Amino acid sequence: MTTTKDSKRGVAIPAHTVPFPSSISVEARTALERLVGEDGSVLNAAFVTPGPDDHEGWLRMKAAVGGQYANALKGLAGRTQSTVETIATGAATVHVATPVALKASNGAYIDFHGGALVFGGGEACRTGAQMQADQHGVLCYGVDYRMPPEHPFPAAVEDGVSAYRHALERHGPENIVVGGRSAGGNIAVATLLKARDEGLPLPAGLVLLSPQVDLTESGDSFATHQLIDVVLPGSLRSSNLLYANGADLTQPYVSPLFADLTGFPPTFLQSGTRDLFLSNTVRMHRALRRAGVPAELHVFEAMPHGGFGGATPEDRELQQEIVRFVEHRWAD
């Protein structure tokens, strides 16, 4: 007798409350509690995105989220020390931040911002470049890549390659480290794939912070961490389809997890045990290892997507680990 496996079959879990653990700092626990109502509901869970074909709806949402980003950035006013200049290279906009004091005379960090492949550009990207320049003490190129609905795939990847070529004209590849967080991790990896395919030398290192490298959302944590991740409680399917614009979601430049990663530079990967993208990160780590790439995986206790907000001991420890990795890449 032949049986057919039911793709919906799995482990039934009784309804219960998942407590915040005592194994994290008081500051981290407080950061998590702020995002949950008195009844235990995740405050971000009611966030509804337009359908992938509702371009007007996405434009309205981009404007609203842009306002939220602007308000959040006010808290950073006066904290960044680096100067910044905005340039154009091809169709790409790049914010070039210069620190007050250079740690590595010819070092460069190329930064790809997050934001679900739709948000996070403009002033947020510009400020992010300054923060990275301050953190690493080198010139930082913040890539303000084009995004949908106006500019779907492959515009962002094309901008990434254009910015990378610009950096290569000014720095040796051994002096460049590329980094991306969340959606920016997708664009960072896709940029290096395309750069490699075009015969360009790859950089000295790669930093991927909870990277959105699988737009099919096929990993285990997309089921197990729904509503457990209080920052990113559910699927980004709609924005993924908007970004892909009809392209196959398993295409390597769209979902770099499925690429041949041979020849990639040493890579630092980070996630948390409550991160919706935990599966993205651990699967990317294994894919890099299978390709023979030296790769570090750092998973933080109870950390949701994007960290605890930047002001906790765990966030500071993560930043120290990133700085260590990057400085070591320039030292080799």
TrEMBL record:
- Kindly name one Pfam family recorded for this protein: Abhydrolase_3
> Does Manganese show up as a keyword for this record?
no
InterPro entries annotated for this entry? Answer: AB_hydrolase_3, AB_hydrolase_fold, GDXG_lipolytic_enzyme
Keyword annotations: Hydrolase
Domain of life assignment:
Bacteria
Record GO terms (molecular function): hydrolase activity
Alpha/beta hydrolase fold-3 domain location is 110-306
What family does the Swiss-Prot or TrEMBL record give for this protein?
Belongs to the 'GDXG' lipolytic enzyme family.
Q: What is this protein called?
A: Alpha/beta hydrolase
What is the source species? Luteibacter jiangsuensis
